[in-house]
Amino acid sequence: MRRARGLGILEARALARLNWLVHGFSTRPGGASELKTVCDGQEKSENVLNLGFTDWDRREQVLENRAKFFAAVGAGKMHMLALRQIHSDIVHRVDAWERLAPGSVSHEVALHGDALFTREHGVLLVVQTADCIPILLADRKRRAVAAIHAGWRGTLRRIAEKTLGRMQMEFGTQAKDVIAALGPGIGQCCYEVGEDVAKEFAALFPNARDWFEGPFDALASGENDPNWLPWLTMRPPGHQPPSPRARLNLIAANRAILAGAGVAPGNIFSSGLCTACRPDLLFSYRREKTTGRLMAAIGIR
Fold first, then answer.
1. How far apart are CA 67 and CA 59, in angstroms?
2. CB 158 within 8 A of CB 201
3. Which of 96, 104, 152, 296 has the most C-beta neighbours closer than 10 Å?
């Protein structure tokens, strides 16, 4: 982690070596936003670097936090472009400079989707997360970059592979030239999912079992059907045991998807940080509910 302007910025060393781009993953401390939480019955207040327009925060504080973060990653004079994220596989190419106000560093357009890619200079692509996996891609030869938001739905729809495919089709990107950096997200240690998620992954990925811990086979096959589970356990209505859960490894799933698309495993890097395990450093919606948003950013100087 690099310190800049009082903030902790997470970087991928392989991306940091490329002098033509800027990038970074934000962390929690050091912002102007005041977040109040309750822990063990006691109210706690802390100043945090919230980078999303949430109900509990004021817009001017978020804009102040964003300006501080952009300056810390070296993108203070770049045009920021974000999305209205919808947990999809929708990918947008960015090459329309005329849509950006001159001098703007916090402009958001009404694009709906979960991935952006570009070869434009001076544009900072960003995605926001609070448990989902942020993925940054950089084509070292063609000098193209992408920012991807991958929750379980985006991962299921192979959004990282589809973004790479768009870069290949439109820029001539070769997967062997791509560096991928996966930022902080909820880890397998803390991410429990139910039968619906297990079934969907089993239907689309032959190797999905590799990404789960727990009763994946039973969940994927429907053996834990809630219609007959109470009868099997002979418990009265209202006293059924909780539905079985399995733990999903979104990092492993996205690494495998990228490797399957041709990115060299040695060029796929992960922060190794779980958002739910590190409330001191990161935001986690699943852990906290009322929380801030992290940001992953990448752009060409």
1. 12
2. no
3. 296
Whether 48 contacts 31, CB under 8 Å = yes
SS (H, E, C) 171-213: HCCCHHHEEEEECCECCCCCCEECHHHHHHHHHHCCCHHHHEE
3-class secondary structure, 61 = helix
Residue 33: burial class (beta carbons within 10 Å; 0-12, 13-18, 19+): buried
- Residue 10 has phi, psi (to 5 degrees) of -85, 135
Q: Amino acid identity, residue 281? A: L
What is the domain partition of the chain in residue ranges?
Answer: 2-188+261-300, 192-247
Name the pTM for this structure.
0.92
DSSP-derived secondary structure letter, 239: -
Pairing, β 91-94 against β 133-139: unpaired
Task: Tell me which residues of the chain have a pLDDT lower than 70.
Answer: 39-40, 96-110, 224-241
Q: How far apart are CA 5 and CA 33, in angstroms?
A: 16
The DSSP H or E segment spanning 63 is helix 59-72
- How far CA 262 is from CA of 31, 70, 80, 159, 257, in Å, comes to 39, 31, 29, 15, 9
Strand partners, 275: none
**CA–CA separation, 53 and 51 (whole Å):** 7
CATH number of 2-188+261-300, picked from 2.40.30.110, 3.40.30.10, 3.60.140.10, 3.40.430.10: 3.60.140.10
